[in-house]
Amino acid sequence: MKQLIFISLLLGTLRLSAQVKISGRITDNKNKPLSGASIVLKDTYDGATSDSTGLYSFPTQEKGIHQLEVSTTGYNSISQNINIGLSPIVQNLSLKEQVTELKAVVISAGSFEASDKNKGAVLSSIDIVTTPSANGDVTSAFKSLPGTQQVGESEGLFVRGGTATESKIYMDGNLVNNFFYSSTPGIATRGRFNPFLFKGTVFSTGGYSALYGQALSSALILESNDLPERTQADLSISVVGIGGGIQHLSRDKKSSWGVSYNYINLWLAFNVIKQKQDYFRVPVANQTDANFRIKTKNGGFIKYYGYLSTNKVGFRSPDIDTTGLKDAFTLKNINTYQNINWKDRIGNGWKINTGISFSTNKDNIANDIQDASNRKVTLNSPSLYAFKNFSLENNAKYAQARLVLEKRIKGLTAIRFGSDYFYSDEKSTYTLYDGTKFDEKIIDHLYAGFAEADIYVTNSLAAKIGTRLEHSEIINQWNIAPRLSLAYKLADNSQASLAYGIFYQNPERKLLPAAAGIDYSKAAHYIFQYTRQTRDYTLRTELFYKKYDDLYKTAPGFNGRELAVNNNGFGDAKGIEFFWRDKKTIKNVDYWFSYSYLDTKRNFLNYPTAIQPSFAANHTAAFVFKRFVLPWKTGFNFSYNFATGRPYYNIGFDSSLSKYTIKDQGKTINYNSMSFSINYLPNLGKTNAKTFAVWVLGINNVLGQKQVFSYNYSSNGNRKEAVTPPSKRFVFIGCFLSFGIDRTQDAINNNL
Amino acid sequence: MKKIILSATILLLSVSLFAQSEKFTAAMKKNLDALGAAFKNPPELLTVANNFERIATAEKTQWLPYYYAAFCQVNYGFIQQDKTKTDGYADKASELIAKADSLSPKNSEISCIKSMIASCHMMVDPQQRWMEYGKESGSKLDAAISQDATNPRPHYLRGQGLKFTPEQFGGGCKTAKPELQTAMEKYANFKPASELHPNWGKEQVDQLLKECQ
Fold first, then answer.
1. Residue B43: its chain A contacts at CB < 8 A?
2. Are A572 and A123 in contact, with CB atoms under 8 Å apart?
3. Is the pLDDT of residue A166 over 50?
4. CA of A467: how far to CAs of A210, A261, A744, in Å?
5. Which of B10, B50, B87, B137 to substitute to test the interface with A, most A CBs within 10 Å?
6. Can you spell out the DSSP letters for B171-198?
7. Which carries the bigger pLDDT value, residue A333 or residue A106?
8. Confidence of residue B18 (pLDDT cuts 50, 70, 90)
9. Closest by Cβ to B170, choosing from A73, A630, A687
């Protein structure tokens, strides 16, 4: 009987246990209510969701000690032991906000990012190919952003009063030495690499990370694609050539390989569009590349990229010192680039990023003086004219090894450190009119070590502090370059940033061999940035001051070459820049506007005093407008670039004074260029289409506006001639096809 | 005495076991009712999602509460207007459906939710994301159909997607209608495995078909 009572008592407690109310308020650490937080009595069904005032309340029949857990997206979850008895429990809890990439400030002073995934990106990857003034050239798209000059007579990025050699380009962390096709006089060459190779680009116009060095002005950091989405073959046909390639994705989607080949021949284009130069060898290039990418089991990647190209070009232009004679310039180039990179997690919050690259570049350049019937004129007396017949062979080899280790400390806070080794071996043979040869060989070993910390104090305040140490054998001294960047979030969509840094650079190849005792050239950057960014618009303004010290001064060496003799050069650059992008106000229209004001003077190379350099305009502006018309499956892109005139000088060596003087100077007319392109995507939206086609029509300088980049002077200074683009406008027509090998069936099979 | 204690223990045990599954079914039913009502007051979806998630974590071996929690989160992702937050809800739904998936692999219903999650991500920026998420959403529906040919929901979701795709992209009523009709036929023969199993979408297909008349 007793037992029965016992059992019924037991059963009774099961049924009749009293409910206890648990309630409270959930707040963040600033005591602001958190709504939508989930409150759970662990391992039971009991719990609640906090309301808009952070309040929660729920009944429970549980008794004894339980864990009360609170969690919500973006905050660290917490749990609290509570002892449930008979009386109601009030438990207030506060959660700490997680420092997450989604919410944290972006350390962005000085840099523009083009990416589809990263927060703070100003451009998306596709913008690089749909900006009409860029002609599908990776670096040209950045000329529609503030900070860069509209220089059309030579390649490269001229950033904030810096020369093109002050900008360095990196692919997956490795320096690319010959990013552009070899220079030809008065014509800007294109970048060698296909913009579709890259998933993200960071263009820094100053104040960049200690991971990069040897660039006084700017770093362009390119990150190559991960695995392709599917196996695909591509074919392109255009007025400048044909090309084809294949990207193969393995069945398990863990690795891929690809090869491509492009043949470029400008015969057709140059026959239709008259060029200023008289081409006896129309530009022809053969380009081939190969890659493989392997996804590791920790989500890292091993990536290889290899590139080989040959190109030839030859053209005549009137010789400026004579009447009736012509300069016939020929260039043959062979270039290779190889890069293998491993990026991975190696446990305990450590990451490794290591790579080696190797490249070679060979130029055969020759210049002949020719008469009216294009016959070579040989002048043997050593005069100005005799020296115009010459040939030059450049043979360069470059190698780099790099290791970066990174450790996540907490949240986004991390430290990274590593080292770089650069090897360069540059040989040249200069052959005079009379067959005399001059051989030259410049070898450098450059060692660098760097350390950097990303410190996220809260989601609103972050700093990047770093130092770079370098030793170049040519200079035979160490340099220490501190870098600092701060970002502070002012409101949800706006932030202010500051950056400071010291940057060092060796003399460029053409100034070598330098006089003994030459030191690094140096620049200090001070940048203040304000950004306001939402999904639909971006407003960014930057103020900068840049101080140059120890710039190279030159003096005439043998053969009239100018070589670095001392570090007595100096200069500065200051300015303000605006960028505005709006994707919303006008339906289906995306436009951006950028403006840069630059005030710069420098005394370097052969400048007699500090003057505004010939590559710097005071005002530069760009306007880009894109509209996609869905029913027509066609995108219309328009861009307008403007710059005020640039100064030009005739600087000559006055032997009586034994110094350089400015013999003549002036200012070019303003630069105006309007470009237009149309992309037609006939297969858009056909989900089952095996072929995807893009038709492109692009016209540069649609209005045929007159452009003068600079002036060339004759040796005696009596004659000057405008440096203008090779043709008034250029028209590009092309078709790009991709043939997908659909893996949908595989995807289904994998799911079964 | 021993016998009594033994039988009492067995009795107690079976009562508690019975109570346990009774409790699960009751809690699920209560929240399924709440789910139906929550669509009229969308923030309620998150409350119901949390309720399902609590049941899921306490039960540990049931895929259905995870499934419904994910269903609530992804639906809220679609309904709420702040596009900067959409990815967050879709990610939360992904996390939940992954747990359901590990408890019940190759489940047609789960594939449907995965497809909805991909569509939800795509909606944030259709032009940029179409290539990645549009494809994924479609392939998950293909998987759902091959995993269970009798399931009407993949056809409903595909039909709904097509209806809201512009005609020049191969969408609109013309292409949506056959898919929705297929869904309707399958709904007519569809019997959920239990009253807790997924059984939604018929009214919506009705509505869509009416709009396409």
1. 36
2. no
3. yes
4. 6, 41, 49
5. B50
6. -SHHHHHHHHHHHHHHHHH---SSTTS-
7. A333
8. low
9. A687
Tens-digit pLDDT profile for residues A89-147: 999 999 988 887 777 888 888 888 877 767 677 777 778 778 888 877 888 888 999 99
Q: What confidence tens digit (pLDDT) does each residue in A587-621 have?
A: 889 999 999 999 999 999 999 999 999 999 999 99
Relative to beta strand A89-90, strand A20-28 is parallel
> Which residues, including other chains, have CB under 8 Å from residue A617's CB and lie 6 or more apart?
A149, A150, A598, A643, A644, A645, A646, A671
Residues on chain B touching A43 (C-beta within 8 angstroms): 57-58
User: Any CB–CB contact under 8 A between B111 and chain A?
Assistant: yes
Give the number of other Cβ atoms within 10 Å of residue A283's Cβ. 23
User: Which DSSP string do the residues of A107-119 spell out, in sequence order?
Assistant: --TTEEEEESSST
Measure Cα distances from A455 to A207, A630, A636 in Å: 17, 45, 43
Round to whole Å and give the CA distance between A520 and A476.
Answer: 10
CA distance A120 to A118: 6
Distance in angstroms between the alpha carbons of the first and the last residue of chain B: 75
Contact A11 B106 (CB under 8 A): no
Interatomic CA distance for residues A68 and B138, integer angstroms? 41
In angstroms, the CA A84 to CA A87 distance is 8
Residues 142 to 201 of B: which have CB under 8 A from any A CB? 142-143, 146-147, 165-166, 168-171
C-beta of residue B121 within 8 angstroms of C-beta of residue B131: no
Beta-strand ranges (E) seen in A126-254 are 167-171, 174-175, 198-204, 218-224, 231-238, 241-249
The angle that helices B63-79 and B43-59 make with each other, rounded to 10 degrees, is 160
Strand partners, A265: A284
Bridge partners (DSSP) listed for residue A699: A676, A731
Residue A154 DSSP SS3? coil
* CATH code at A17-95: 2.60.40.10
CA pair distance A391, A429, nearest whole angstrom: 8
Given an 8 Å threshold on Cβ–Cβ distance, is B47 in contact with A631? no
Q: What is the DSSP letter of B132?
A: I
Between CA A220 and CA A208 the distance in angstroms is 10
Radius of gyration of chain A (CA): 32
Q: Kindly tell me the burial class for residue B92, based on how many C-beta atoms sit within 10 Å of its own C-beta (0-12, 13-18, 19 or more).
A: buried
Of the residues B95, B139, B165, the best mutation for testing chain A's interface (the one with the most A CB atoms within 10 Å of its CB) is: B139
Angle between helices B173-189 and B153-163 (to 10 degrees): 160
CA distance A370 to chain B (A): 55
Q: What is the CATH code for A111-751?
A: 2.40.170.20
User: Taking the domains of chain A in order of start, what are their residue ranges?
Assistant: 17-95, 111-751
Asked if A359 contacts A333 with a C-beta cutoff of 8 angstroms, the reply is no
Domain spans of chain B, in order of start: 24-124, 150-213
DSSP state of A189: P
Sign, CA torsion A558/A563/A569/A572: positive
> Which amino acid is present at A592?
W
Question: Does the beta-carbon distance from B8 to A7 stay under 8 Å?
Answer: yes
> Quick one: CATH architecture of B24-124?
Alpha Horseshoe (1.25)
| Residue with tokens 């991500």, as numbered in its chain | B121
| Chain A CB contacts of B12 below 8 Å | 7, 10-11
- Closest chain A residue to the Cα of B140, Cα to Cα: A748
Interface predicted TM-score of the whole assembly (ipTM), two decimals: 0.82
B135-180 pLDDT, tens digit per residue, is: 889 999 999 999 999 999 999 999 998 888 877 777 888 889 999 9
